[in-house]
Amino acid sequence: MPEGPTLAQLGEGELIRRLGAFAPPGQFDDDAALLGAALLGGRPAGDPPLVLNTDVLVEDVHFSAATMGAADVGWRAAAANLSDLAAMGCRGAVGLTVALVAPGHTPWAWVEGAYAGMAELLGSHGGVLLGGDCSGGRQRLLAVTALGRLPAGGGPIRRGDGRPGDVLVSTGAHGISRLGLAVLRGEALPDLPAAGRERAIRAHRRPVPRFDAVAALGASRPAALDWRVAGCDSSDGLATAASCLAVASRCTALLSRSDLPLAAELAGQAQAEDWCLWGGEDFELVLALEPAWAEALVEQLEGARWIGRLVEPQPWGPLGWTEGGGPIASPTAAFRHFG
Amino acid sequence: MPEGPTLAQLGEGELIRRLGAFAPPGQFDDDAALLGAALLGGRPAGDPPLVLNTDVLVEDVHFSAATMGAADVGWRAAAANLSDLAAMGCRGAVGLTVALVAPGHTPWAWVEGAYAGMAELLGSHGGVLLGGDCSGGRQRLLAVTALGRLPAGGGPIRRGDGRPGDVLVSTGAHGISRLGLAVLRGEALPDLPAAGRERAIRAHRRPVPRFDAVAALGASRPAALDWRVAGCDSSDGLATAASCLAVASRCTALLSRSDLPLAAELAGQAQAEDWCLWGGEDFELVLALEPAWAEALVEQLEGARWIGRLVEPQPWGPLGWTEGGGPIASPTAAFRHFG
């Protein structure tokens, strides 16, 4: 009997689109769920909305023992979730719950290390362990849900709030996490000095949620401008982030090739541009802002830079180069969750 | 090199105790996490607290294709989470997030069925799908996180709020879910009529979170009594629930053998008492209340019944029989998550 498509045949994007049909309209549009007064019923309208986000990290899909210790896995699981809160406009987390699944033969020492890594991230970036569940299973995984709240003085950051004319800002360099993975896999990387290798490994294992960038965003808002910021995090890559913003905002994103936020450690590497655009897991924020606000933010936040702009939607697609126009080609081997 | 104990060697109880050390003191004491004003920072103190709960359902651990269809799996995953919200005193859910993990060869039809089952439960008991994540993995599983809030007129239900002299009340009969599992596994069940088989199967596949019982609890509170209710849900079995309440409240729970809340369908089955006490997954609430409140609740809520009381802690343990005293023996083959 024909059963229709499998998840691998659908692919992650189409799967998420179909799952979104079980949620209220628009609920799946952003990095995380915004819980406004309407969803929370009796809460006073002036109370800052809550933000809820779930991310799952699966062994041999998102991490492997070859490239990460237990504490790195825990740190990353928490950091990835908190990064999504930052991408929604939160400046910190209330805390998180963790569903741990692992085979019965898993050493307690591994679980202890993973929770210590989560606790280390929470200790330095805010939030506490709130609760969770655990179960046996064939494969180690952590499903983490983080709860945050918008600051009283700042609104939400939504993917669809961009407009033609907005400037695109990246809060930091890209490609270093992918470089770290290459180091850990023993790929050939000519002329990469030892200090650069160490920085790249650390960036891959210990990403940092950019709550500081959200605080700088709030502090740099020109008094004349209302709150309107589009953005998402770059966990799936800089190009994907810019493209998502553009699609949700019904614009095209033009990136300036000469202003690509290449990590300094990528200098001399053949894959530098590919890894900057498509490497993923840098967990920076990609924002679309009015030019005056963008300028103030770049001035105030070290490492933040101008990377392009939003324009009216172009017939050839949501993502292109400023120089010469035309789409940015995506690499052939994109990461697939359902392999 | 010795790595110390494995998760199977620790067992679930000791694992949760150790994981609780990574959370603030007391944070792991209840069925779910209570987020009061202190955790949420700037929220007004009078605002009803939020409740957050995570439960994971793993294929071949919590469910199997032999006993449940996809829609049953989704329903149960959502119901188990909402039951924990009810056990904390919520009368409904804001909604939930879902982390879906499944092999790439999983048919979309199975995932669609599971989400339809969740949507059906939410549609009839309140709450919406808020967000989530998905990933490939070796085994199907759903890690669900539910968010609820306490009603304005009702306080929290906590495991540790019981006192000697409290009456134990069960909101319904026990053992029918385990009976349903026996039917589905084809175990020998003499003299079980067809209608009873159907009710047992339905109880196993489609448990209901007892938000209605929490509403009745609030409505039946005698005006002279302040809010103080201890309780938890009976997902791990009636005896385990009573024992947890007793331990957290530093009491001993005495169950009355002649008042055991045996499901009517268990009549004539040799395992009736065992399944009532230890079968699990009935998702009723077990509450400890002042006698006057307990009496009013039993009068108001159909199916609720007096099952025993809390007394001063006894040297032989937290759980015993009213008749004759002495501990209730636990069966040899308890369910183990890390088997």
TrEMBL record, chains A, B:
Q: Does the keyword DNA-binding apply?
A: no
Where does this protein act, in terms of pathway? Cofactor biosynthesis; thiamine diphosphate biosynthesis; thiamine diphosphate from thiamine phosphate: step 1/1
- Residues annotated for Mg(2+) 2 binding in this entry: 55, 84
> Its catalytic activity?
thiamine phosphate + ATP = thiamine diphosphate + ADP
UniProt binding sites for Mg(2+) 1: 54-55, 133
UniProt: Mg(2+) 4 binding residues: 31, 84
Q: Which GO terms describe its molecular function?
A: thiamine-phosphate kinase activity
Q: Which Pfam families match?
A: AIRS (PF00586), AIRS_C (PF02769)
Q: Which branch of life, at top level?
A: Bacteria
| Binding sites annotated in the UniProt record for ATP | 115, 132-133, 159, 235
Q: Which residues are substrate-binding?
A: 62, 281, 335
Reported EC number(s) for this entry are 2.7.4.16
**Alphabetized UniProt keyword annotations:** ATP-binding, Kinase, Magnesium, Metal-binding, Nucleotide-binding, Thiamine biosynthesis, Transferase
Gene3D superfamilies in the cross-refs? PurM-like C-terminal domain, PurM-like, N-terminal domain
Q: Which residues bind Mg(2+) 5?
A: 236
What region holds the PurM-like N-terminal domain?
30-149
Which residues does the UniProt record annotate as the domain PurM-like C-terminal? 163-311
Question: Which residues are Mg(2+) 3-binding?
Answer: 31, 84, 233
As for family, the record states:
Belongs to the thiamine-monophosphate kinase family.
Q: What else does the entry mention about this protein? A: Reaction mechanism of ThiL seems to utilize a direct, inline transfer of the gamma-phosphate of ATP to TMP rather than a phosphorylated enzyme intermediate.
- NCBIfam families per the record? thiL
Q: Tell me which PANTHER family the record gives.
A: THIAMINE-MONOPHOSPHATE KINASE
| Its job | Catalyzes the ATP-dependent phosphorylation of thiamine-monophosphate (TMP) to form thiamine-pyrophosphate (TPP), the active form of vitamin B1.
Q: Which protein are we looking at? A: Thiamine-monophosphate kinase
Originating species = Cyanobium gracile UHCC 0139
Q: Which gene encodes it?
A: thiL
